[in-house]
Write a structure and sequence with these properties.
253 residues, Rossmann fold, seven-stranded parallel sheet, two-stranded antiparallel sheet, globular, SDR, Sc_DH/Rdtase_CS, SDR family oxidoreductase, NAD(P)-bd_dom_sf
Length: 253
Amino acid sequence: MSQVGSRPFNEQTVLITGGSGGIGAAISERFASVGMNVVIHYMQSHESANETARKCMKHGSQVLTAMADLRSKEQILRMQEKLDNHGMMPDIIVNNAGVSHFGLLSDVSEELWDDVMSINLKGTFMVTQQFMQSMIHQKYGRIINVSSIWGISGASCEVLYSTTKGGINAFTKALAKELAPSGITVNAVAPGAVNTSMMANFDAQEQTAIANEIPAGRFAHPDEIASLVYFLALPESGYITGQIISPNGGWLT
């Protein structure tokens, strides 16, 4: 295994927000597969977080689950204190937590706009701001933000969601420049259609129509997204920063 200073890569700690299901669970298990220390954040999915934790522990990984509403700085600070008390401050942050929204912009209330913005964009900002301090101190770290193809191209009837992910992309590019002198990389993974519960907004006929638009002819599997996140976290990926990488089966080129 590659290492940072005297600490091998597989002895580092990764924090995955929204790490209990779908893409987040796949990412958690990918890092656990090499024995890394894994922190699985969740907001409400307690049982899913525990199930993912059990799968991770089968690899011999040290696992911690942490509940926090990412709209609340107070709860993020409590999560940070918990991680610090367990000696599991992250070397790698994967900002995966997020909610989707499908509907006409004319039907979006101010309250809904603020709520989705707070979870998807403000939550990413607050988690990163709090946990990057230890990375700056050690002059090493990886921040990987899970965005979306719609943050690049935009999507009709997903204006709110697209806006939050476009914000994540700009956040990624700007922060990469700010943290590069501290040995920290910041990148975003912007998947196309992935076979997760987020696709539940579409019925079977609509899902088939979407898959037919994709040159690869199918949705991505969460493990394929997790593999890219893992690659960006490696020490040897240290010259890749400020990039928005979109695994989308050729849907957007």
